[in-house]
Amino acid sequence: MSKSALDDVLEFHWMMDMLQTVDVGIVVLDREFKIHMWNDFMESHSGLTAADAKGHSIFAINPDINQTWFSQKTNAVFALKIRSFMTWEQRPYLFKFANYRPITGTEDFMYQNIAISPLTSATGAVDYISMMIYDTTDKAAAKKQLEALQVHVDESNELT
Amino acid sequence: MSLSVLICDDSLVARKQVAKCLPQDWDVQVHFAKHGEDAIDQLNKGKGQLLLLDLNMPIMDGYQTLEAIQTSAIQSKVVIISGDIQPAAHERVKALGAIDFIQKPVNPGQLQAVLKQHDLLNVSDELIESSLPYSVRDCYQEITNIAMGQAGDHLARIMNVFVKLPIPNVNLIEVSELHMMLKDIEKHEQVTAVCQGFIGGGVSGEAVCILSDSSFGDVAKILNITEAVDDQIQLEVLMDAASILIGTCLSGIGQQLDLSLRQGQPIVLGQHRNVNELINQNQNKWRKTLAIELSYGIEGFDVQCDLILLFTEDSMTVMNKKLAHLLEENT
Fold first, then answer.
1. pTM of the model
2. Separation of alpha carbons B5 and B112, rounded Å
3. Chain B residues with CB within 8 Å of chain A CB
4. B100 and B158 co-located in one domain
5. Which residue on chain A is closest to B196 by alpha carbon?
6. CATH number at residue B287
7. Region B42-59: what's the mean pLDDT?
C-alpha cells in the first residue's frame, strides 16, 4: 500500500470516528428507507446497536413513524434535492428518547429538531438521505417556562 | 448621524403610506406615533427632527400638537399631511409653526419636492452608491426569475399542480419597512410565518415564508395530508411548504451565483414571539437590506403564500461581484 493510500484510509477512519462520536444523531437511509448508518448518538439513546439497526427499515425500527407521512416528507428531498426540516415546536420528537439529563432535567423525553438532507453520489444522483437529530430539550424547556411565566404575569396583572 | 423622522397619524394605513413615500435613498430613521400625545412624548425623547403630522386624530389633534411644540420650544420641523384642504386650515397650521402643508393622499414626488424645498434632503455620496441601480435590480430579478423557473418546474412535478410563477419584487428596504412588514404579520391573525437563516460563501440572510391561514386547507390537499387540519398539522404544512419553497429558491439562486447556501433550522414566528423586540435588538447592526419578495399562487387552489428573502448589506458586495459578469454582458 502506498503512503498516500494509507493516509486516505487513516483519514477515512478518523472521519468516521468523528461522525460516530458527534453529539448529534445521524441516520442514513436509502430510497427503501433501509438504515445504512446509525451513529453512536442513536445507539446510546435508543439502546439499539448499529448492527441491529443497519439493513432494517426505519419503520420497523421505529413504529411511531407514520409511513405515508414520512415518505411524502422525504419524497421532496429525493426529488428536489432540498433539505427538509422538522422542529420540536411542530413535533416534539420523532424518536422517543429519554431526557439526556434524567435527574436534573424537567422534561421526560428529548425534544428534537431534525434536518433531512439529500446525499448526492458521485454521479449526481440522490440515492441516500441523511437525518440529523438535534437535542433541543433545553430550548423547549426554557420556552415552556417562559410561557408559563407570561401566563402567571398576565394573571396577576388581571387581579390587580 | 442620520436624520430622524417621526410620522404621526392615527391610521396605520396612512402611516405606512407616508413611510412608503419617503425618498428611497434618504438616510433617515423612521419612527411612528399614533396621536399627538404619543408624538410629543417621542419628540421629547429626541426622536423626530422632522415631524410629518396629521391633523385629525384622537386624544391630541394636529393643532394641539403644534401648540404643544411651540410652548415646549421643541426644535423639530413640522410638515402637515392632512386631508383637510380648507385654506383656513392651511393658514392656521402655518401660523402655528408648520413649515409646509401636503394634501392627502401624499405621493412620493410631492413629498420629495417639499423636503427638497426645505433643504431636508441631504443625500450623502455614500448613500447614492448604496441605492440600487436599475441594472443591478434587474439582474437580481432575472436571477430570481431563473431560480423560480427551476423551482416551479420541480414543484409542478412533485405536486402535480400548475404553479403560477410570481414576478419577484427586488428592493432595498429599510429597517423600518421590515419592521412594519413583520408587525403586519404579527397583527394579522390570519397568517403564520416561518423564518430560516441561510449562509454560504460570504452571503447570508434570512428567508421568511408567510402562509395565510385560509390557504392551509388547500396546501394540505396539495401535500396529500388527509388528517383534519388542526394547529399541529398547520405547522407541519407550513414547515413542509417552507422547506420546499425556500430550498428550491435558494438552491436556484446559489447555483447561478456559484454559491452553496446552507440553511439553518427554521423558526416559527408565532404569537409568543415578540417580533418587535427581535428587530429592535438588531436595529443598530444594519440599516438597509436587499429584499426579494415572491408571491405564490397555485392554479385551481386558494393558496396565498409569500416568500421574502432578505440578504444582509455585506452579502450584497459579494453578490454584486458575482453578478458583475452578467452586468457586463448586458451593457
1. 0.63
2. 14
3. 154-155, 157-158, 196, 223-225, 232, 235-236, 239-240, 243-244, 247-248, 251, 263, 265-268, 270, 272
4. no
5. A85
6. 3.40.1550.10
7. 86
